[in-house]
Write a structure and sequence with these properties.
It contains ten helices and 14 strands. By secondary structure, it is an alpha/beta fold. The strands form three sheets. The chain has a six-stranded mixed sheet with strand order 6-7-8-3-9-10, with helices on both faces. It starts with 5 loop residues before the first strand and ends in a 12-residue tail after the last helix.
Length: 322
């Protein structure tokens, strides 16, 4: 849907590549349509081979679509040469000139985007600090770890202060602390008024970060919407945990129907269909002297939606038609 707030728009985009000895065309993207609005974070989810990287390459002008319409900042892609200066991009597998230092690499990237020397020096220091590479700027890139290279890729994508940031698997190769730092950095971009579109295999990161999500599978879009809309706010069940259990309590707990709960060591875990049923079992267990440990309403997660929409791997696309 075309609106003035859309920074990125794809309508009916398709792409195929020749494959195999006979060079038959294999369809990689099939009638993909979605948009990214100004100052929102959109996550791009899908399994390996779904078409995420191909879509991102098309958005960056590194590949061309066979059919469909693509626009960025309201203009057809490639229609204006200054678009690239307004876009920050980090590929899934960034390539580095390994004989350069981190500082030298960012200086090269800055010159390619038209930055002057003073601006490059100032922004390089700022970016290296933001991605956690302070102190490594003078080290040869060949001595960087995989995680350090990923951070350097992020630094170059943000160096020229772009309006739109496109990241392909930005958490790849990072440890849990590194992932948390990158999440914080992406949140900070939104606060600065930037627009972020990124792909990821890590569903928890997408759910924590994103305003909206686009899911694709085998080249087709299978879901799109706000995280809250996709997940829904209704409680699926109420998890009630009783612990610790004595031997006598375990005997009592084992009489509970298997479809309601189970004993795991010295812990009884119940899944009540609603709060009323949960309250009923809390009272019963209290009368039996069994201590309550926790009571937690369980809502759907983005991972549940992902499994529903992409869980069919028998030759059909969940949510679409081949």
């Amino acid at each position: 849907m075309r609106t003035a707030d859309n920074v990125v728009e794809l309508e009916g985009v398709s792409k195929s590549f020749p494959s195999g000895f006979w060079r038959r065309r294999v369809r990689v993207l099939i009638d993909i349509s979605f948009s990214v609005r100004r100052n929102e974070i959109v996550g791009f989810l899908g399994p390996n081979g779904a078409g995420k990287t191909t879509t991102i390459k098309i958005l960056n002008g590194l590949a061309t679509a066979d059919a469909g319409r693509i626009s960025i900042f309201g203009e057809p892609i490639g229609g204006r040469r200054d678009h690239r200066r307004r876009i920050g991009y980090m590929p899934e597998q960034p390539y580095f000139y390994e004989y350069l230092t981190g500082d030298e690499f960012l200086a090269l990237c800055g010159r390619l985007t038209g930055m002057n020397g003073r601006e490059i020096r100032r922004k390089s220091r700022e970016m290296l600090e933001r991605v956690g590479l302070s102190g490594a700027e003078g080290k040869s890139i060949r001595k960087y770890s995989k995680g350090m290279m990923q951070r350097l890729g992020l630094a170059q994508a943000l160096l020229h202060d772009p309006e739109l940031v496109i990241l392909d698997e930005p958490m790849s190769g990072l440890d849990p602390m590194g992932r948390m730092e990158v999440r914080s950095l992406i949140h900070g971009l939104k606060k600065l008024g930037k627009t972020v579109f990124f792909s990821s295999h890590i569903i928890a990161d997408v759910e924590a970060l994103c305003d909206r999500v686009v899911m694709i599978d085998r080249g087709r879009k299978v879901a799109e919407g706000a995280v809250e809309e996709l997940v829904g706010g209704e409680v699926q069940y109420v998890e009630v945990v009783f612990s610790p259990l004595t031997d006598r309590m375990v005997t009592t707990a084992q009489s509970i129907p298997a479809d309601l709960g189970s004993v795991q060591g010295d812990t009884l875990v119940l899944r009540a269909k609603d709060h009323a049923e949960a309250d009923l079992w809390v009272r019963k267990m209290k009368e039996a002297g069994i201590p309550l440990s926790s009571l937690q309403p369980m809502k759907r997660r983005l991972e549940d939606i992902y499994v529903e929409r992409l869980g069919s791997r028998d030759g059909t696309v969940a949510g679409g038609n081949e």
